[in-house]
Amino acid sequence: MPRFTLRNPQSLAAPVVTGCVYFAAATLSVSVSRFEGGLAFIWGANAFLMAELLTSRISYWPRAMLACFLASMAATALFGLGPAAALPMAFINVSEALIVAIICRHFLSNRTVTGSMHPLIVFILALCGVADIVTGFAAAAVATLTTPASYGASWLHWYTGHALGGLICTPVLILLLQGEFGRWLRATPRPMKIEAVALLALFTLTTVHVFYWARYPMLFAPLLPLVLIAFRVGHIGAAASIVILALIGGVATLSGTGPLMIIDGSMGERVQAFQFYLALSFLLSLPVAAELNGRRRLFQMLQESESRYRAIAEHSGDVVLNISMEGVIEYASPSAQEQIGCAPGLLVGQSATDLVDPQDRDAVLAAHRQALARPGTVHQVEFRPLLAAGDLDCCEMVSRAVVDDRGQAVGLVSMIRDISKHKARQRALQQVAARDALTGADSRRAFLDKLDAEMARAAQGARSCLLLIDLDHFKAVNDRYGHSGGDRVLTGFVQRLLPELRGLDSIGRLGGEEFAILLVDCDSHSASQLCDRLRARLAAPIDVNDRGEAISVTFSAGLVALDGGSTRSAMLEAADQALYEAKHSGRNCLRLAA
Question: Mind telling me which residue stretches traverse the membrane in this protein (predicted)?
């Protein structure tokens, strides 16, 4: 739905011009259509005020309404119901336009009422369903008090005159105030202008024939060229046709000529009938033109989107696929040759899952189903390709549903991106993060993850142990040899222990000089024997600097057998308590958790 730039007149002359135009329109309506001494049968002045309000910023509304209020008072006092009715009628006229403007502004958010069907319907309902019904009651009361006309006739005259005048004139005036006619002249190719002029000339000739020359009532005759103009020229042509029809038919009817003279009634009734005819012509042409205009914009947007899509697909390094609802590839971008080593033409007609390793096909299918079930959302999935060129070993597929004009999914567009290098860097970073940078032991996080996994195995009946180790008097090492000497001791300590550990066992540095060893498939007795062997391997001194100085180190340890029914925190706490007892038992010893 198009938004347009709202006018914001700053000139002091702008409201004066608005008031003058309103006064001229009101005076003309009263002069030519106040047939029975009551309200005018034709009223287009409020259509001008509605167009002013709907195309301008709210800041301009008070000035425009004040100018039209004064103009309405003058027209009513001089040519209409008289001075006594001037003030209330001015208030009622301005209220009608204000009600329509407020409703349209609220529901349309500055969108033009001529752009497509929805805003046009909102405008019609605001005018005919609310504003003219409400203000008609007040206007009929004023007319009843100041003229001999009955209340019911006055209300009907007000409603038909204002509703039909607003329907016919407001959309045309909006197009005029927004400069749509000028834009159409500048943007339309010459051949289309010639076609439009020819169609409007045909319409004019048909209308003149119907209202001046035809021997039989042929009010249906202008409708065919009217619809043709709506199709070929759009809402500008439809609006111009309504203006031509109003001018020719209106002059003919007011001068007592034309097919409406067959009506056996007053001139007012004939004018009302002509306005109904104009309104029906309006409802036939402008909505059709608005809908066509919307479809034309949609088609243009689709063309632009298609051009962008083709440019991206044909020059992107990623593989772009169009996939049907059945999962069959309907289009593959040229990059498929480079990325997966297969010509795009050979992929068309194949199932998209044929590109995926069988182990990952279920995940890819699930992502496709989710994208089709929720159009408008993007779904990502990683998979290993079945066929690949070069070192491609991991891909990411991003899929989004393609929808029709009803919003229903009709297929998928998917982009396949090579993320092999990204995954390799990710694995390298994970390996770095899993190792203690100083000693080469597992990091605290990595060790605890392994402990969690072993706790799960213990819950299934596996027998494993956790050994918590703390180097004895390590602070003294740092104080005497510095942190570089302490670092050498920590590194040497781990290197001495590693040969005694089995492939499934793990050693991790929990912090400072505190280490933990996870002994898989090992009972407490075997773990105690392993601890003795570890202590024996530390009998030889460890170098602390490059000057040949070396020291012997010992450790205290707490041992706990993993209980599958307990928690990781409980196991660590039990091992830590056993370690605490070992330290307070003279150090360089092992204690079992209770």
Answer: 12-32, 38-54, 90-108, 120-143, 155-176, 196-213, 219-235, 242-262, 274-292
- The string of pLDDT tens digits covering residues 323-378 is 999 989 988 888 887 777 778 888 888 888 888 888 888 988 998 899 898 888 88
Which long-range contacts (C-beta less than 8 Å, at least 24 apart) are formed by 145-153?
A: 145/85, 146/81, 146/82, 146/84, 146/85, 147/37, 147/38, 147/81, 148/37, 148/38, 149/36, 149/37, 149/38, 149/39, 153/36, 153/38
- Give the residue from 134, 141, 126, 123 showing the smallest Cα distance to 84: 141
Integer Cα distance of 399 and 305 in angstroms: 17
Cα–Cα distance measured from residue 527 to residue 328, given in angstroms and rounded to the nearest whole number: 59
Q: 259 and 218 in contact (C-beta within 8 Å)?
A: yes
HSE at residue 392, side-chain half, CA atoms within 13 A, is 25
Alpha helix segments (H runs only) across 82-150: 83-108, 117-124, 132-146
**Do the Cβ atoms of 513 and 474 come closer than 8 Å?**
yes
Give the three-class secondary structure for 541. Answer: coil
Same domain, 324 and 311: no
Question: What's the pTM value of the predicted model, to 2 decimals?
Answer: 0.54
Whether 438 and 474 map to the same domain: the answer is yes
Q: How far is CA 512 from the centre of its chain?
A: 52
Q: Among 509, 506, 532, which Cα is nearest to 518's?
A: 506
pLDDT digits (tens, 9 = 90+) for 312-334: 666 666 888 889 999 899 888 88
Query: Is residue 428 in some structural domain?
Result: no
Per the structure, the complete domain to which residue 306 belongs is given by: 183-315
